[in-house]
Specification:
- The chain has about 280 residues and is mainly alpha-helical.
- Helices cover about 60% and strands about 10% of the residues.
- The strands form 2 sheets. It has a 3-stranded mixed sheet. The chain has a 3-stranded mixed sheet with strand order 4-5-6.
- Strand 2 and strand 3 form a beta hairpin.
- The longest helix is centred in the C-terminal third of the chain and has 33 residues.
- It starts with 5 loop residues before the first helix and ends with a helix.
């Protein structure tokens, strides 16, 4: 349930403060677990570090992961420093790989090395692969999870595979058709599958005019491509045209906001320099 307006958020903060003082943790648990993860993440920033830890521990597991991914890096780092290794391991192993890589990029190399050892072997391998790509590249920001289909699959078989994969919400709308060497040969949207006859194959309904980026492409190019073609996700291929991941629209929004902030800071620095120059000239 969304928290709504700023006033409602302030009222929530006040109510939780009162409940914390009264140590009514069960009531807090019921209250915050009924909110949207983004609202809980925003709410937590109004509390001090100790109270943030208390609130986070009152979240259900799935909600906790959603909230953690929504927090900024400073608050994520504060929470990680407050948890046991077991708790940190639990969080990192279920985070989406792209969000986890983004977090690692903000932490000192020594800390990242320690955190990598808290991952299970599969997640550690995945994290190491993503961290191996150039910083600010498509490979570095992509999510290596995606819906892959084969061209001989019928619509029924494709939908059954999607159910089994149970992808996150931001990745369910587009599936990628690959050959047995993982070369990307087409895309199929959820709309295509829903509106097509059950017996039709992916070869009959897939779009072969594919918009994609490579692992070495700059993240700003990736974001602008998603914006230009108005797509929800963009496939990322390696140098042999093999599908290795996807970048979703929420990642693109983050990149555009980040680039805009950097541009503003750059312009502010130029303006300051110009003002100082004019002042000194006079």
């Amino acid at each position: 349930m969304p928290a709504g307006t700023i006033n409602e958020m302030e009222e929530l903060q006040q109510k939780i403060n009162e409940l914390l003082e009264q140590k009514k943790f069960f009531e807090i648990k019921e209250l915050i677990n009924d909110l949207h993860p983004a609202d809980v993440a925003e709410l937590m920033t109004f509390f001090d570090r100790d109270d943030q830890v208390v609130l986070f521990r009152l979240l259900k597991k799935d909600m906790a992961i959603g909230v953690f991914e929504q927090l900024d890096f400073e608050h994520q780092e504060n929470l990680l420093n407050s948890f046991t290794d077991d708790k940190v391991s639990e969080i990192l192993n279920v985070m989406s790989p792209d969000d986890r890589t983004e977090l690692f990029d903000e932490l000192p190399a020594k800390v990242v090395k320690k955190l990598l050892f808290l991952l299970n072997p599969d997640q550690r391998k995945m994290a190491s692969i993503l961290l191996g790509y150039r910083e600010n590249s498509a490979g570095r920001i992509m999510n290596p999870g995606y819906i892959d289909l084969k061209e001989h699959y019928t619509v029924d078989q494709a939908l059954d595979r999607i159910r089994k994969l149970s992808p996150p919400e931001d990745m369910i709308y587009t599936a990628y058709v690959t050959d047995y060497q993982r070369h990307l040969i087409g895309t199929v949207t959820l709309r295509d599958l829903v509106l097509s006859s059950p017996e039709k194959t992916m070869k009959n309904i897939m779009n072969t005019d594919i918009i994609f980026v490579t692992t070495d492409d700059d993240q700003e190019l990736v974001a602008r491509t998603i914006q230009k073609y108005d797509v929800l996700s963009l496939p990322v291929v390696d140098h042999e045209q093999r599908l290795v991941g996807v970048v979703t629209v929420d990642d693109a929004i983050d990149i555009i906001e980040e680039e805009a902030t950097e541009d503003i800071h750059r312009l502010a620095a130029i303006q300051t320099t110009e003002d100082e120059y004019l002042h000194n000239s006079l």
